[in-house]
């Protein structure tokens, strides 16, 4: 080989070595930075990298999900463990589930009982009833408000609408409900663009107006932990910067609305395919409960405009809370609902379902 080519080869090898050293330096720096609480909390946001690292910080010893009553699900990421009986959770509160993982101990067969109306409730932790007992969650209170009507609680903490749709398609339709009742929180819209939240999860991509399911099968906690050392933390830092830029540019908020609308469209189609009526109810949470000066929040307006454009029945509950405030009731306006907020929501939902003839109470037995 001639001298110029040898020199060129040495220069290329030297450049390659330099790039490797620089890459290793930045990779090690990223690993140290992300393991430092002060740095991590400064860059943390509502994105996959942040949620994955938050979950990793909870892991010690045997891999686990989020709550003790969680179980890994390869399609939905996580689900509620079946056959849980009086499991302590959130202090003195206890959780029970039936043989199919529905909140409460009551069993529901797929086959309908003649003359008994049935409602399937979908939602996140506000529907499941985080921090309240089995009998206090609003789906159970709704059943008490509607004598003779079966209300099945398919709520799961941390779920986005994508996971709720998959749950409806896998299990909800098998119960042949008269009404599919979605407990809508605007926070759940942001979960639809995530591939990791309380744990790794599926995610839909909107391509050509069609939903394409991604990230399935979802790996187990043990598999996720085993793969973590091989993940580049430099890529994680770059992903954080990319996610921040997409939020600031308005791309992610815009795409979130478009994707959510497509998922809700499919949820309504799925409900109608088994003869059920889709009914979406906006659950007022946090500061939305005690804002009498605002007739409708920006998030509420998006929700109700969407439902009106699709011809989907939509229930407005905030007035029930405002009426309670006017009567001197003190509601919890931070964190998860307590028993009072669940009861208020259930009473308002029952009233609106009946007045709009969306559900009918069975005739009393002689």
What does this structure look like?
- 35% of the residues are buried.
- The longest helix is centred in the N-terminal third of the chain and has 32 residues, at 3-34.
- Helix 11 (298-310) links the parallel strand 10 and strand 11.
- The chain has one domain: Rossmann fold.
- The chain is built from 13 helices and eleven strands.
- A five-stranded parallel beta sheet has the order 6-5-7-10-11, sandwiched between helices.
- By secondary structure, it is α/β, with parallel strands linked by helices.
- It has helices at 3-34, 37-43, 48-57, 125-128, 138-145, 161-170, 187-191, 221-227, 233-249, 251-273, 298-310, 318-326, 339-355, and strands at residues 70-73, 77-80, 87-88, 94-95, 118-122, 150-153, 179-184, 203-207, 210-214, 277-282, 313-316.
List key phrases describing it:
13 helices, 11 strands, Rossmann fold, 44% helix, five-stranded parallel β-sheet, 366 residues, alpha/beta
